[in-house]
Design goal:
This protein is an alpha/beta fold. It has helices spanning 15-21, 39-48, 54-63, 71-79, 88-100, 104-107, 111-127, 139-150, 155-165, 196-199, 231-239, 250-254, 263-269, 291-306, 334-339, 360-369, and strands spanning 5-9, 29-32, 171-174, 181-186, 191-193, 210-216, 224-225, 242-245, 274-276, 318-322, 343-347. The chain contains 16 helices and 11 strands. The strands form 2 sheets. The chain has a 7-stranded parallel β-sheet, with helices on both faces. A 4-stranded antiparallel β-sheet has the order 5-4-6-7, with no helix packed on it. The radius of gyration is 21 Å and the shape is globular.
Length: 373
């Protein structure tokens, strides 16, 4: 049901769109960055040498069938975080109560999903290092990590299982299944390691613009890394009927998803429409330039990997803008956008209630309307 619109993203930015999108299509595809390095994700990644699963969890829950029996209870459980002020023994007992089914949030979930949650939490608790800090841990993340470990570290298999059980109306997939991190070179020459140090969440904000983004092994020192998309990801890109680079953290969500080799090449090879939806509110990662500069950086990132045989100008077709919004961070510079060879399309994207952010329903409708151009 519905068109195959593919999104390159991560983080919570496209969440409102995803929740609205399932009213129009059950065939959307979401390639998610697994490079989060902050909060409880950092603890899990360090303990189990694995990619981040938090953004994958968030997207699956956003795409789960809202009216399906038990899904509201499952979303509440998956979003629940263990208390930050409890003792290690108290936190472990909370997990044991969930595993036994005595916890009311677990007891409220449908039987098939409940059994899987209990099984994977049990596997996590067994595999958990004795000194692992459970304070503030997301139960959804612990469930996915337990499933990841129990399924031979096959993240795709775990995502497929939970997508079926939670009636996820779309395809969610990490762009790569590798334990890698982000590294950014700033205009002042410094190198910042780790996604959490770029977004400003709990870390000092950037004081110099990002000029280069790449992959890195670990967070302790510069160790440049490379990764390549798997055939499954390449096939998902090839099957897309539209490719969208949506709102969200520009560097750690959008450009980060384009870093693995093969992404730009696969995007260029697909003749479907490609759309960039720039942020309408300030992005903590962006310190200079406006929509035209972000568009140029996006096209450069795609073109760097697409090779000499790509059709000229086919890495991006449209920049989707709100019809009336005048406060795009850094300005629009329509002449510069025109010089890039992309077409600007205006639509109603922002409501009085959503401003300064884009309304998810209006964005879904605007993307669908592009099929008629």
């Amino acid at each position: 049901m519905g068109p195959k619109i593919l999104f390159f993203s991560g983080g919570s930015g496209p969440g409102p769109l995803s929740r609205e999108l399932i009213a129009y299509t059950h065939n959307s595809i979401h390639l998610i960055t697994p490079f989060d390095s902050g909060g409880s994700s950092a603890k899990l990644r360090q303990a189990f040498d694995m990619p981040a699963v938090g953004d994958l969890r968030n997207r699956m829950m956003a795409l789960s069938e809202q009216g399906h029996r038990g899904n509201a209870e499952a979303r509440r459980l998956f979003a629940y975080r263990l208390p930050k002020d409890a003792t290690h023994i108290e936190l472990a007992e909370s997990l044991k109560a969930m595993i036994s089914g005595q916890d009311p949030m677990v007891a409220d979930t449908p039987e098939a999903l409940r059994k899987t949650i209990q099984l994977h939490l049990s596997y996590f608790l067994t595999a958990m290092p004795p000194d692992f800090d459970l304070a503030g841990a997301s139960i959804g993340n612990l469930v996915l990590v337990g499933g990841y470990l129990d399924n031979g570290r096959d993240l795709d298999r775990v995502i497929y299982l939970f997508s079926k059980l939670a009636k996820v109306r779309g395809v969610v997939c990490p762009v790569v299944n590798r334990n890698l991190h982000l590294a950014a070179r700033l205009a002042d020459g410094r190198v910042v390691l780790g996604q959490h140090r770029l977004t400003g969440g709990g870390e000092p904000p950037l004081t110099s613009p990002i000029v280069q983004l790449r992959l890195n092994h670990g967070l302790d020192q510069e160790r440049p890394a490379t990764a390549e998309i798997e055939p499954k990801v390449r096939q998902l890109i090839a099957e897309a009927e539209m490719i969208c680079f949506p709102v969200g953290s520009f560097y750690t969500s959008i450009l980060a998803s384009l870093l693995p080799k093969g992404v730009g090449e696969a995007v260029a090879a697909n003749p479907c429409p490609k759309v960039f939806v720039p942020n309408t509110a300030p992005d903590k990662e962006v310190l200079n330039g406006g929509v035209a500069q972000r568009t140029a950086e996006l096209m450069a990132a795609l073109g760097a990997d697409s090779g000499p045989m790509r059709p000229e100008g086919r890495v991006l077709d449209y920049v989707l803008l709100d019809r009336h919004w005048q406060d795009y961070p850094g300005g629009l510079d329509l002449a510069a956008l025109d010089a890039l060879g992309v077409k600007t399309v205006r639509a109603d994207l922002i409501t009085p209630a959503s401003a300064p952010f884009i309304d998810g329903r209006l964005l879904a409708e605007a993307l669908l309307s592009l099929f008629e151009i």
